[in-house]
């Protein structure tokens, strides 16, 4: 492992030349926007202001500039209005929740023990909110997790048990990965490339966003479809693609805050230039797109003799694709 400070110093003054990444996805369906976007802006604004009023020390109102509603509406383009509202609440929650431990301004960013207690409590709140078996946590729910409760209540009204369980399982992966990342950040170490990518699949939160795609489609997706081997490949490649794209676009901000836990930093060696790192990342992106498309073809092909399941498989694949193209459009 390398020192974050050493890597940050080595990158100071250098330029990362990021090419036009949209060219990698030209064969995918064009990105669209949910028709209920404008109403979603109002919901997002009101939700953030409510958190800010209850917990002003969190400085959550800075997130009003980010247009979180746009991201949700780029991801879940076909979700009907009421389901979209639940999805918007989830995206607002995950952005605000992550801020609390992952940024310099975060309330728990420098206090691992308190952050760990909050993570454990969040999972207990999530289990109860998703109407899964377990004991509801005692005491009041904090301002940010109150949004998770609101999402969970709406989601649980219509999502079947197997989807709610999958959502919770993905939340566990995400939150545990965030714990590991915070520990690395506070110890000022940088993982190897392989260690980082294994961790990043969790911290990117992609599994949770993918778990919500069936709900957004407003169609019954049989559990055997989302549990099939090709879909596991699709889900992994979405997380890989989202990790690379997010890291490329957020590197400057992360270095400014003194954090070097980023895919670019894990690939950088004393004899490697940033241009060479970018070439390697670009090749990895191309490989991930190819693996996704091959798995998509195999998955959709399984249902060629069943018109209903065939169209459902296509919708599911395109829903997964929009998680990536939506991130690019949003960025």
Automatic annotation (TrEMBL):
One Gene Ontology term of the molecular function aspect: metal ion binding
Similarity comment: Belongs to the terpene synthase family.
Protein name: Terpene synthase
Cofactor: Mg(2+)
One Pfam match: Terpene_syn_C_2
EC number: 4.2.3.-
Gene Ontology biological process terms from the UniProt entry: isoprenoid biosynthetic process
InterPro entries noted in UniProt: Isoprenoid_synthase_dom_sf, Terpene_cyclase-like_2
Keywords of the record: Lyase, Magnesium, Metal-binding
Lineage, broadest ranks: Eukaryota, Fungi, Dikarya, Ascomycota, Pezizomycotina
Record organism: Trichoderma breve
